[in-house]
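Worked example 3 (structure in, sequence out).
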């Protein structure tokens, strides 16, 4: 899950050298974006198209093909600062005890027509990039955080994915259709998650509505069933230890680890289910799929498990791998993020592909599903916009708006730009960490060894959660060893953090 931090103006200095000039992290972020092949600026014609959209917004008329669902108790759950709201949810207990779940997805295609200037820019960039200090949006903010966002208390066009979940957590039926919706409550992961887990009081909007409380608890109940079944089928329990900057007076004071909770899990489980429904809905037309191939380096995963005293099958088995991960998380939580990262690297990256009718599904090894696409974040991912157009073509009985050649090219570019976006985020995370640590030169921290390479030894500080280079004292250390590490140098421009063994 990607953390989405509000755009801020941020200037800082490396505290260990008073002569160091001011560091403009926004300028650095823009430079890193360009180095990875992104174009941060929108074309000059963008404003003209926005003016036309404002002058002629989508008509919110309902019909046999567009349902009026504004009366339902829709709510959104997202990051504390998010304004680019892509999805809202609502659930209903059926007479037989099953639960009908509806996921409303922002109808971005209603605002951005195929082939227009904004659409062409989105097709090139493919994704919004979140650098911690600036958001480089795929769509202009006037759309992604405004007109096409599912903001509270306004009517919006949406594409709804509906599915019925039985007591076992399996889907009995599903459908996809267009609707007009209205978000009744914008909620956040941290507040809702703490309430669902019983560690904090309900957030004000939830506390004020018994109906909303019941709604969220029902959603959580269904999500837990979906999750349980996914893990039983072999979905991987991974912890990637994501961190975000803590800002005070335009300075990076610290970086804090993002932790998952019941609310983040709820949305993740609903989105996985919805994306599967959409993939199956499109199985008779050429479409995009999001896949993670069966690991080519399974032997490396087997050796990794053996080093932990565990034995995995000789052939790829996601269920066995997840059982191993669950066991190691319980036995050694301190090292689990590092183990997760090693497994992710060996499993291999996700990618987008063209899938034609009749093709054997490649599947998503990490999620243990055969049918999966991306459809739930069209404000910030271009594949989701494409999928939205494919859905509408099927619903209206029209030809596919994209040729197989088009879809193959889009898939390749989206994969490439997705990889580039992760590189941007990693590079900026290093710089943010360096700035956060720049005023702590000379301090000593609890750390553990995360890598031993020909270039040297790398360590991860336990608190705050960040990695650096062990410039001295690395001889004889092995991955997993714990030590005390003294911070000796930071370089914000290059994202370097150096320690010596204390």
């Amino acid at each position: 899950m990607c953390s989405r931090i509000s755009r801020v103006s941020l200037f800082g200095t490396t505290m260990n050298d008073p002569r160091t000039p001011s560091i403009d992290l926004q300028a650095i972020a823009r430079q890193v974006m360009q180095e990875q092949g992104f174009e941060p600026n929108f074309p000059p014609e963008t404003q003209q198209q926005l003016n036309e959209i404002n002058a002629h917004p989508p008509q919110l008329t309902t019909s046999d093909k567009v349902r009026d669902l504004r009366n339902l108790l829709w709510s959104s759950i997202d990051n504390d600062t998010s304004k680019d709201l892509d999805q809202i949810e609502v659930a209903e207990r059926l007479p037989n005890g099953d639960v009908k779940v509806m996921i409303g997805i922002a109808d971005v295609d209603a605002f951005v027509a195929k082939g227009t200037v904004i659409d062409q820019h989105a097709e090139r960039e493919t994704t919004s990039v979140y650098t911690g200090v600036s958001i480089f949006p795929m769509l202009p903010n006037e759309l992604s955080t405004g007109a096409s966002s599912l903001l509270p208390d306004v009517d919006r066009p949406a594409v709804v994915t509906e599915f019925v979940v039985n007591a076992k957590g399996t889907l009995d039926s599903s459908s996809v259709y267009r609707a007009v919706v209205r978000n009744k409550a914008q909620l956040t992961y941290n507040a809702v998650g703490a309430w669902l887990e019983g560690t904090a009081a309900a957030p004000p909007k939830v506390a004020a509505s018994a109906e909303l409380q019941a709604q969220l608890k029902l959603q959580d109940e269904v999500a837990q069933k979906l999750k349980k079944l996914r893990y039983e089928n072999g979905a991987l329990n991974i912890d990637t230890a994501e961190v975000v900057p803590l800002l005070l007076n335009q300075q990076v004071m610290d970086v804090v680890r993002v932790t998952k909770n019941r609310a983040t899990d709820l949305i993740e489980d609903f989105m996985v289910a919805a994306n599967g429904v959409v993939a199956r809905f499109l199985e008779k037309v050429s479409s995009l799929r999001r896949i993670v191939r069966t690991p080519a380096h399974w032997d490396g995963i087997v050796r990794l498990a053996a080093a932990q005293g565990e034995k995995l099958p000789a052939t790829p088995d996601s269920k066995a791998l997840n059982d191993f991960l669950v066991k190691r998380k319980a036995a050694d939580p301190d090292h689990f993020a590092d183990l997760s990262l090693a497994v992710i690297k060996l499993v291999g990256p996700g990618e987008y592909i063209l899938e034609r009718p009749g093709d054997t599904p490649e599947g998503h090894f990490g999620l243990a599903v055969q049918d999966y696409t991306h459809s739930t974040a069209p404000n910030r991912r271009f594949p989701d916009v494409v999928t939205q157009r494919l859905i509408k073509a099927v619903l209206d009985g029209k030809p596919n708006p994209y040729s197989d050649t088009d879809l193959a090219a889009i898939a390749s570019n989206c994969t490439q730009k997705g990889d580039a976006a992760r590189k941007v985020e990693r590079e900026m995370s290093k710089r943010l960490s360096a700035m956060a640590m720049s005023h702590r030169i000379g301090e000593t921290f609890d750390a553990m060894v995360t890598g031993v390479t020909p270039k040297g030894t790398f360590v991860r500080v336990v608190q705050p959660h960040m990695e650096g280079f062990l410039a001295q004292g690395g001889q004889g250390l092995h991955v997993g060893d714990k030590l005390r590490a003294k911070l000796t140098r930071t370089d914000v421009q290059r994202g370097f953090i150096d320690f010596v063994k204390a």
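Notes: Residues 404-437 form the longest helix (34 residues). Residues 1-21 have pLDDT under 50 and may be disordered.
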